[in-house]
Structures are given as C-alpha cells and as structure tokens.
Amino acid sequence: MSALSQPRTWGMLGVLVVSLFVLYQLWHWQIERVEVKPDEFLVKVNLWGKNLPEDEIVAPDSSYKGVQRELLREGRHFLNPLLYSYERHKMLVVPIGQCAVLTRRAGKPISPERLAAGEFLAQGDFDEPDPDKKERGILPKVLMPNTYWINPYEYSYELIPMVQVKSFQVGVRTLKWGKDPKELRQKKEVAPNRYVVPEGYRGVQEKVLEPRDYYINPYVESIVPVDVRSHPCTFTDIEFPSRDGFWIRPHVLVSYRVMPEKAAELFVVLADDGKLHQEDQTEEQQRKNEILQKFVLPLIRGYVRMSGSNFDARDYISHKKPEEGGGVNPREQLQIELMRKVEPECKKVGVQIDQISIIKIETNKELSELADQIAERERQRVMRMTNKQLVEQAKKEMEQKATEALKERSTKLVEANQMLKVAKTNAARDLETTEAELKNQLLAAQTRLDAAKKQAEAILTEGKADANIILAKNEAEVAGLKTAISGFPSPESYAQFEVLKKVSPALSEIFASDNSEFAKLFSTYMVPGHKPFPIGNGGEGRPGTGTKSSSAK
User: Fold this and answer.
1) What pLDDT, in 10s, does the model give residues 224-233?
2) Angle ∠(271,273,277) on CA atoms, nearest 5
3) Rounded to two decimals, what is the model's pTM?
4) CA gap 274, 186 in Å, rounded
5) How is the chain split into domains, by residue range?
6) Domain spanning 231-362 has what CATH number?
7) Cystine design at 46: which of 65, 312, 521, 539 (Cβ 3.0–4.6 Å)?
8) CB-CB contact of 184 with 222 (8 Å)
C-alpha cells in the first residue's frame, strides 16, 4: 500500500509544482506587468514600509511607504499589487516660446535665516542628485522648451511665455532676488542712483538688455521691452492768441524716441503698472502715453503759447521767407525756439527730441478772410516778381547772345587770319617749288637738245660715210658688171648666163638619168663651159640653124 501511494504522492507534488509555476507566470505577466508608453511615466507608491515624516509628502527612500521619488519611464515594469500601487502621468512638454517654472513641494525647508535675509528661492536644481541638498520652494532655474519627467507629488510647474526683445527695443530688467541695494550706500566707490542699481542687486538694473529672446523666472526677474524707435506724433489741441488778436491753432508734429542708455531710469520714473505705454496713434493712446503726457506735451504747449504770441496772424498765414523780403518766418523761428528749449529738458529724463515742426495752421472765418487778402496780395507780388524776373531774364539772354555773337565773330576772324597766313605761306612755298622744278626742266631740256644735236651730227656723219661706202661699192659692182657684160654679145645673154649658172646644178640632178628628147634639148646647156645661144634681135641663129656652131665658139 505504501509502495503504491509513494508514486501518486510524487505525481501530485509534480502537478502542484507545475500548477504553481503556471500560476506564478500568469500572476507575473498578467497581474504584475505594467506597460508604459513613450509619452508617459509611472509614479510608484509603496504600500508597506516606514511612515513618512509629518512634513513630507514624498518618501525620502524606498524604505518608506507612500509616493516614491523614482519614476518608472517608458518600457515594461513588474509591480506586485500587494506591495505597490502606481499612477500614470503624462510627460511635461514645454513648447517653444515658453519655459517652465518649478516649485519643489518635497525636501527640507528654507532656513529662517535665509528667509529673514529675503532669500525665498530654493537651493538645489531640478537635476540635483543629492536629496539632502534640495529645498522646498521655487527653483530659480527654469526648464527650457523640451520634454521632462516631473513627479507631480514632488514638483508643481507653471508655463511662462518667453520675453521677446525685438530689434527696435531694449529690455529693462528688474531683479527681484539678489543682493540688498542698501549695501550700495556703504560703498563709497559706487555712487548710488535713486532709480536703478548695478548688476546683481535687487531692483531695476541700470544696464539694459540687448534684443533677443529671454526665458526668465518671473519670481526672480522681470524684463519689460522698451521701444527706442523714433515716434512721430501730431498734436492738434494747442491754441494761443496772436499779437494782433487772432486765435491760432497750430498742428505740431513731434518726433521723439527713448534714449537706450536711459531707458531703465525712464521706466522707473514713468511706469505705474509695470509697463511703459508708448503707443501714440490715437488720442486714447496719447492720453495713456506717459512720455507724452508727463514730459513732451506740457513743455511743447507752454513754449508754443509763449513764443507763438510774439507774431501777427498774417505771419503764420503768409509764412514768407526772409530772403523774399517778408521779415522773420514765425513757423521756422517757433520750431527753432521749441527745439532749443524742449530738447534739453526732455534729454535730461531720457527722451530725445529729433524734430519739432509746425505742419498746419487751422483757420476760422476771420483767418480765412485774412488769408484770402494775404493770398491775393501774395499773388500780385509773385506776379510782379515773376515779370521782373522775366525782364531780367530777357536782358540776360540778349546780353548773352551779344556776347556769344562777338565771341563767335572774334573766333571766326582769328580763324580767317590763320587761314590767310597759312594760304600765303603755302603759295610762297608752292611758287618756289614750281620755279625750281621749271628751272630743272629747262636745264634738262637744254641738255637733251644739245645731246640730240650731237647725235644728229653723228648720225649725219655716219650716214654720209655709209653713203660713200655704198656708192663706192655700187660703182665697183657696176664696173664689174660692165666688164662681165662686155664679154657677152648682149646684156640679155649675160643675164641668161647668170640664170643658167644658178639653175644648172639643179637641172643636172633632175635630168641626169633622163634620155628623152626633152632632156636632150637641155643637155647641151648643162655641160660646163657651154656657151648659150644668142637671144634677141641680133640676127644670130638658134641651135640647129647652122649660123654658128658650138664648136666654133
């Protein structure tokens, strides 16, 4: 029996162990498992442990029960619900253009000595790892735009917009936490200012901030942008009587700006609610503008009324210039007087006056009638001045034309004289050149003539010599011919003989092998030494007639 029960016992134990392992895995993965998303975190709460001190809301370490400082971030965590509970919270997202001011709710309190000295900000930054160095209270350092894991039981936060100091502004900084400005009175090397303090002391800082974006803790400091551009503003509510009893209502244009180096002092003197109102486009804005209402307008009103009453109404309406013979221009003089008196007074408090101009004079019925009379008189005066100017202009034009004509005549006369001189010089030079060339040609012609004469004489002499030679030669030939002919019966026979003498060699070649009767006829004439028969009317017989035989010859 015991042998049979022992395997069953081990089997039951195995099943029990497997069941317990499966149950543990189910408990671990289904009950204890907690998945944390990327944009959230868990605040763990211990259900067991030591009790928290009375003035603490966050456990100093994990041995205490209650809310724990350590946060469980993105990922997978396993928390036993019998030992721990948890809360899901979203991450703190500080958007661009804002910063987060933290207040630590857990930690040691600020000492009474520091509180008595006016130090109300907690020590220990947000990322301070040592809990003993963390104090409850407002943290001086802000969180810049980003995402943060903030334990809501340890910290509370407040999103504060950044302060933007634009390119046309300066920032007036007020430090609410720092050294006591009373210490300045004890330092002889530092001259205390009634309105501003040096850097590091509580109060309005004498050094202004340059244009950029500032993320500040409003419990530590404040920054107020102050516009330093030039602002044109027109005042229409000023009225004063002229010297001759007319009421004058001018429109005064004032261009003013805040001096950057004195913006802090001006802010302290004028700002009632922590802001300097500088808008001035409407009457309502001008009434709220402390710079205009407390400095600029009172000074301008007073000096305009005092200085403007020293002139007559017609001076403001006609506003002749001194060079036109109208005396002093009241508008210009009034502008100069206002600048001379108002500008230094405003500069003392930090306001620079760039320009003061009288741009318009409002007219009523009396001033309109006076203006019409002055306008008509001015029109006649202008017409006279115009006619006078036209006459003077015509005279000047005539004088100028006469001067130009004389000048042109003188120029042309000089040019003509120069041209005549040049022509004479050229003519004399050409005459000398021509005479020289003609002389040279004459000498050359004479030389050629002499040479031609000598050549003709030589040719004549040579011709006479040649003629004599030819004549002698001809006479010799004629003598020879006479001698030759004398041996023949007649000149014709001599001529026949000369012909045959020249032809016989050729005929001998032609009829050398010819035995015909025709060839025989000429054979006797081709024999050397044969004397031809006589030809002519001499009565001598032909060959074969028997008058004279060839042998007889």
Assistant:
1) 999 999 999 8
2) 55
3) 0.59
4) 29
5) 14-90, 163-227, 231-362, 487-553
6) 3.30.479.30
7) 65
8) no
